[in-house]
Specification:
mainly alpha; 2 domains; globular; 0% strand
Length: 177
């Protein structure tokens, strides 16, 4: 059920784009994401920081897109989000000597510090890659191509998360022995 909820706003955006264009799709994305966050809040009684940031960026960039009637804002939102995530992870790791992933997930995943360090480096690299890739598609391709990239580009996060799962699984202790 949670997986369906995760994909609902992007599917709604894609359908709305095909039926009514980028501005209709932007409005649908804003509403669908707000509804998604409301459901998550009802289930969990809280929103994680990433949820709040995503919602804020979609609402701000969506509003700019609609008010200024300029699709560039919604197309650049993923680049801003991924870039900000990479910057926060890197600044925390190298500037403040804090591993944000470990702070957020360390109680759920008992991993050695070097594994957390490598995971964070992987996330920084992934976020930089996705920010750059979205930026290139947003800047140099048509809106149709960008929307298709947003839909079919989900292969990147899925592949990354599966890779992370495989990597983490190798380092988890087996409590059944």
């Amino acid at each position: 059920m949670r997986l369906l909820l995760d994909f609902a706003p992007i599917v709604a955006f894609f359908i709305a784009y095909r039926l009514g264009g980028i501005y209709s799709a932007t409005a649908v994305l804003m509403v669908a994401t707000a509804l998604q966050m409301a459901v998550i809040y009802l289930w969990d009684r809280r929103l994680q920081a990433l949820h709040k940031i995503t919602l804020a960026l979609i609402l701000v960039f969506g509003t700019l897109t609609l008010v200024l009637h300029d699709e560039r804002f919604i197309k650049w939102k993923p680049t801003v989000l991924y870039g900000a995530l990479a910057l926060v992870l890197a600044a925390a790791l190298w500037g403040w000597r804090r591993n944000v992933l470990q702070l957020l997930l360390g109680t759920q995943l008992p991993l050695p510090a070097p594994v957390w360090h490598r995971l964070t480096l992987a996330w920084i690299g992934y976020c930089v890659f996705m920010a750059a890739l979205n930026g290139i598609v947003a800047a140099y391709f048509s809106t149709d191509a960008w929307v298709d990239f947003k839909l079919w580009g989900y292969v990147f996060p899925l592949a990354f998360l599966i890779g992370q799962g495989v990597y983490v699984a190798r380092h988890l202790k087996d409590d059944t022995a």
